[in-house]
């Protein structure tokens, strides 16, 4: 487990990124293979994390890893408290697909507290550096809460990553 | 009796026979027989009474030679002549060597002092020759001895010293409305008042380009949106006239038609007046866009400054929320987002978003949409930067939401950070005013000299004593330069003093500028607070609360002293967080030579600018804002806050908005976000990869990579000096 404060690479705005240890997807070409091993981290309580998250008035929250869904109960507990005690948004990355999560009662317990899910395994053969917040095009940015419209009348369309 | 001496530079000074005596004694000292003070005095006396009233230095030296040759000590004559020749050669050799370096287009820190200038072009070389010659003239002829010593020994640095003899002032915020409403006369050209947006935009360029050659610093427009807004409506009216001509009708009754926003819309389904007005709006928006494009293009291409540099131009905008003002803002932002030519990022003008709650910042504000867009533009193009009008020290009670001239009570800044606002001798405003000259103190040198003290209290007390000495000598120097500047005649600055500088319109061409010069500021800046703190207590202010406390004590003390100088000398003295470009490496080099490598202090090739925390120090943007924010209120001549961000900012404009929020929370006055931006000029590929050398898409090497240096953007680092290059290498992102 590692916490990155005020990073700009894990979703929109500044974010407190919580990188958990432990992942069994073992995608070829993973950018963070040292996080596969559950033993390669240290234990942190939900309260400790919450304290870091709340101390930062500006940043929203990201779950990454590792795969947070391998510690789904703890992350559900954390996400629930974030939603109860702050107005921060939560982005979550996972190697499971959205359909796999929906099909599992256990995994889907986290979904009600997330704003955005970035799903699916990384596929090295399809690697594309021009994707927004993802590594390969099979991965999807799924908005679980409504996405804020950001068209500004009269201004040129912005270049967008897929 | 000789009364005056004509010096080599043409100055006439009082004759002093002691100088002759001491020169002879020096020559005697290197002979075996040694000094003979009586003989030396006799020779000096003979020369004094040779019947002339004025003599040149060379004449005097000739006489000394003759007297010595005819006297009993011929061996002294030999030494005297040898020394004289050596000095002459040295004088010649030094300038010859520098000239040769310029001629050979050698890459060194002389030709790279200023990253915006191409010193390889003929016009650039010409300027360098002049600049190098005037610098030594200033040292020898215009500075007092103690000031010269402080400069030579690396305690203080006089900025734009090469311009000192010209009596030029640093910078100005243009009251562009005067130019647009009255027209201007520059060189052989005269222009009538502007009637449409294209002319207004071109006049803005000409105003800055002309005045740039009359000053040595930046040119800025303090309220770009307010000034140009009237010409949007005039352009709309012109479009109505055109349509009327085509339709053989008179549409002038629509001239003042209420327009909520100038937005292009489809004409399909629109009838009657609505169709006529919308068509005119569509044409107007097109023309405003074209005019903004032309403006930006002009500012980046016309090398009007001495034929080798574009204008150091800046524009402030964001608070005009009229439909016309919004049209100007939207189109300058659209143009900036799209880029110039084939999509390159425009380096000039530096653009500054004026942030004000109730107008241009909060989600409920009329200009919030444009603020959001400004954040998206800066995420791709580095500009606009953000100027916080709500900072405690920027709020002005004279500002009223319904005042059509409210922009006069909004602080404006030069893009690099220099600003004027407070005024002891006239209206409190940024407009029609600027800095007169500034001088920077090397805090690191003062701190290093105290490192020998064992006791911490004594070490710090000694530092403050030295700091007071450096402040006194800086104030003295600025005041002396002021006394020199004030003898300039109005006619030396034809456009600047035709009414742009506050109060200048009432002067006649042969009047001196003395009566209006006090509208400007004299600024004392500083470099290397971080290294000074390390030298004094072992840690910089980013990593230790104790260092932060001492840092604030140092800077607030400087601020107090600077305010005191304003009273003593009766000028607008202000304190500057110096934008040190050439200086970043120069002081360090001198200190390294004198004191060797001191860990954390002189072990790099540059000193950290002003009150910043070091670029190599890793911390979150919030920590950086919390540490650096509190300094801004003391640095009333200008300050800037930077965050280096990781990831691809273009696709994360929300991060820019969050950083602006951090600025506002921490009372930061002015700030911006640095990131990487690469553009392949062959195929148009863009990304944020650090150190990109080959386009991953077409494998071309024709890349446009952008970096920021002391506020200015530079496309290639070829023209960066060694100190700044070393600083760039050490920059880390904040997260």
Description:
The complex is a heterodimer of chains A (162) and B (735). With 162 residues, chain A is an alpha/beta fold. Chain A has a single domain, classed as Aldolase class I (TIM Barrel). Helices cover 19% and strands 17% of the residues of chain A. Chain A has 3 helices and 6 strands, in the order ββαβαβαββ. Chain A has helices spanning 46-55, 72-85, 98-103, and strands spanning 2-7, 15-19, 60-64, 90-93, 116-119, 140-143. A 6-stranded mixed sheet of chain A has the order 1-2-3-4-5-6, with helices on one face. In chain A, α1 links the parallel β2 (15-19) and β3 (60-64). In chain A, α1 (46-55) packs parallel to α2 (72-85). The relative contact order of chain A is 0.16. Chain B is α/β, with parallel strands linked by helices. Chain B has a 7-stranded mixed sheet with strand order 5-8-9-10-11-16-15. In chain B, strands 4-12-13-14 form a 4-stranded mixed sheet. Chain B has a 4-stranded antiparallel sheet with strand order 18-17-19-20, with no helix packed on it. In chain B, α12 packs across α20 (653-665). The model of chain B has no long low-confidence stretch (mean pLDDT 90). Chains A and B meet through β1 of A and α11, α12, α20 and β18 of B.
Rg of chain B, rounded, reads 29 Å
Average residue pLDDT of chain B? 90
The coarse silhouette of chain B is globular
Report the end-to-end length of chain B measured between terminal Cα atoms. 75 Å
Strand content of chain B: 5-15%
What is the chain-wise order of helices and strands of chain A? EEHEHEHEE
CATH superfamily grouping of chain A: Aldolase class I
Strand order of the largest sheet of chain A: 1-2-3-4-5-6
**Uncertain regions of chain B: pLDDT < 50 for 5+ in a row?**
none
Q: What's the overall geometry of chain A?
A: globular
Sequence-ordered SSE layout with sheet pairings:
The complex is a heterodimer of chains A (162) and B (735).
Chain A: E1 2-7, E2 15-19, H1 46-55, E3 60-64, H2 72-85, E4 90-93, H3 98-103, E5 116-119, E6 140-143
Parallel strand pairs in A: 2-3, 3-4, 4-5
Antiparallel strand pairs in A: 1-2, 5-6
Chain B: E1 4-6, E2 12-14, H1 17-29, H2 37-48, E3 54-56, H3 57-70, H4 74-103, H5 122-142, H6 145-152, E4 156-158, E5 172-173, H7 176-182, E6 185-186, E7 189-190, H8 197-212, E8 219-221, H9 224-247, H10 272-301, E9 313-317, H11 323-338, E10 350-355, H12 368-381, E11 385-388, E12 435-442, H13 443-448, H14 456-485, H15 514-517, E13 521-527, H16 529-537, H17 545-569, E14 572-577, H18 583-595, H19 621-628, E15 641-644, H20 653-665, E16 670-674, E17 677-680, E18 686-687, E19 703-709, E20 712-714, H21 722-730
Helix pairs in contact in B: 1-2, 1-4, 3-4, 4-5, 8-10, 9-10, 9-11, 10-11, 11-12, 12-20, 14-17
